[in-house]
Design a protein that fits this description.
160 residues; five-stranded mixed sheet; four-stranded antiparallel sheet; globular; 43% strand; 13% helix; mainly beta
């Protein structure tokens, strides 16, 4: 009887852990606002996309812990970037078009996670030096729980 209890307890703990990780940012999901392919030296620069920021999933319980904020589980946008940046940099920025404190989460082509809050005022940006070619999954979040906040995703190879 005790063995059944421990087996059941292990299954429940495993299911709880799986459901928690499924609610965190997952690059292996379809995007909310689509994707775009950019070759190094792209024009016009910057590339700008209207999106919304925020979500109902707290980053506080996600692993790896990236920082405070709220996102959706699916990437908001996926960038396929190819080539060698002529400036040696690639900046992904999020500018609010509402009164919201944005956060930005990016999963880079090598699988590493990047987070930023308040790069310029309440707007967020992440600068990749000597950026890799490949897939960048992007989450446009908010510092406080909110959603559907108008924002612009800005991608540039120049100073931002």
């Amino acid at each position: 009887m005790l063995r059944r209890f421990f087996t059941l307890a292990a299954v429940v703990v495993g299911l709880l852990g799986a459901s928690q990780s499924m609610a965190c940012p997952n690059w292996n999901n379809p995007t909310v606002f689509g994707q775009h392919h950019l070759n190094a030296g792209f024009l016009p620069d910057p590339y700008v996309r209207n999106i919304t920021a925020g979500g109902r999933i707290s980053l506080a319980n996600c692993r790896p812990y990236l920082g405070p904020g709220w996102v959706v589980s699916r990437p908001d946008f996926r960038l396929q970037y190819y080539g060698q940046s002529p400036t040696g940099r690639l900046t992904i920025a999020l500018e609010a078009r509402s009164n919201v404190d944005t956060i930005l989460v990016v999963n880079a082509p090598d699988g590493s996670w990047h987070y930023n809050d308040d790069y310029r005022g309440l707007n967020s940006a992440i600068v990749f030096f000597n950026p890799m070619s490949g897939q960048y999954d992007i989450w446009a979040g908010s510092y406080y729980r909110s959603s559907n906040n108008p924002a612009q995703l800005i991608i540039t190879e120049y100073n931002y």
